[in-house]
Design brief:
Helices cover 30% and strands 29% of the residues. By secondary structure, it is of the alpha/beta class. It starts with 12 loop residues before the first helix and ends in a 16-residue tail after the last strand.
Length: 266
């Protein structure tokens, strides 16, 4: 499957390559193992076949494979997939890696569990494309299969919103992040300024931000049932104090019917 070509910020390899040290620190990789244990306890998949959609450098894919799961990691970034392959080889983990756009990847009835982690959802300008991603995930699940999505929730963002943040990287670089809320608190515009070795480079990108109810509605419109919201992978209640928004839903079992929102517009 060939990823669609375009001008979206997430399609630029330089974005992932240049900002990799800030997004995926050693501490972030170390957290992948306990996060994987927690998400399995929360989702309780019934089988061993897993889709890690937007798998990035394989933090969770590798940990899942080491636990005996059959993992397919999908990402459109060649740079991130190269990092994932290297990490999996080092861990002696067997994983299928697929280069594909999350709007295009679908493998009907193939997986018991599908996950999308680390705010890798909401990249697109039109929410109908987010619904398309969710429908692809539902279609890729076996009947009764479970889907888990982990994003930054709107409620928590509103409570701790900071217009600017400065972070020092492990390689001596500095990252200045500037944030602006747009369109009645539905989109977040980001301007990241990277200063490295006396040179400055600026990256601009936007994300759709979802409240708990909005994400639940979007998943139900895509055909998921029994959608539950949590404030983290440990299953804590979702609310204003939550640092994350985690949604868990299932594809209806064979013979069951779900109300798929074919008329939903984003």
């Amino acid at each position: 499957m060939t990823p669609r070509r375009g001008s979206g910020w997430f399609e630029k390899e330089s974005f992932w390559r240049d900002l990799y040290p800030f997004m995926f620190s050693d501490a972030k990789f170390s957290s992948g193992i306990p996060e994987t244990a927690a998400l399995l306890r929360l989702a309780r998949p019934k089988g061993k076949s897993v889709l890690d959609l937007c798998c990035g450098p394989g933090r969770h894919a590798t940990a899942l494979a080491k636990r005996g799961y059959r993992v397919t990691g999908v990402d459109r970034s060649r740079f991130l997939l190269s990092k994932a392959r290297r990490r999996a080889r080092g861990a002696k983990a067997k994983i299928e890696w697929v280069g594909a756009d999350m709007r295009e990847f679908v493998r009907p009835g193939a997986f018991d569990f599908a996950l999308n982690m680390f705010t890798s959802f909401g990249y697109f300008e039109h929410k109908r494309e987010d619904t398309r991603v969710l429908r692809n995930m539902r279609e890729s699940l076996k009947p009764g299969g479970v889907c888990l999505i982990d994003v930054m929730g709107k409620e928590g963002l509103a409570r701790k919103f900071a217009p600017s943040v400065v972070t020092d990287g492990p390689d001596g670089a500095t990252l200045i992040q500037r944030h602006t809320v747009l369109d009645d608190w539905t989109r977040l515009r980001n301007e990241w300024i990277l200063i490295r070795r006396g040179r400055t480079k600026t990256y601009r990108f936007e994300l759709t931000i979802y409240s708990g109810q909005e994400l639940r509605d979007r998943m139900e419109a895509a055909g998921f049932v029994g959608v539950k919201l949590y404030g983290g992978l440990e299953g804590e209640p979702y609310g204003l104090e939550s640092s994350r928004l985690v949604a868990v839903g299932r594809r209806p079992r064979a013979g069951a019917r779900a109300k798929v929102g074919a008329g939903t517009r984003g």
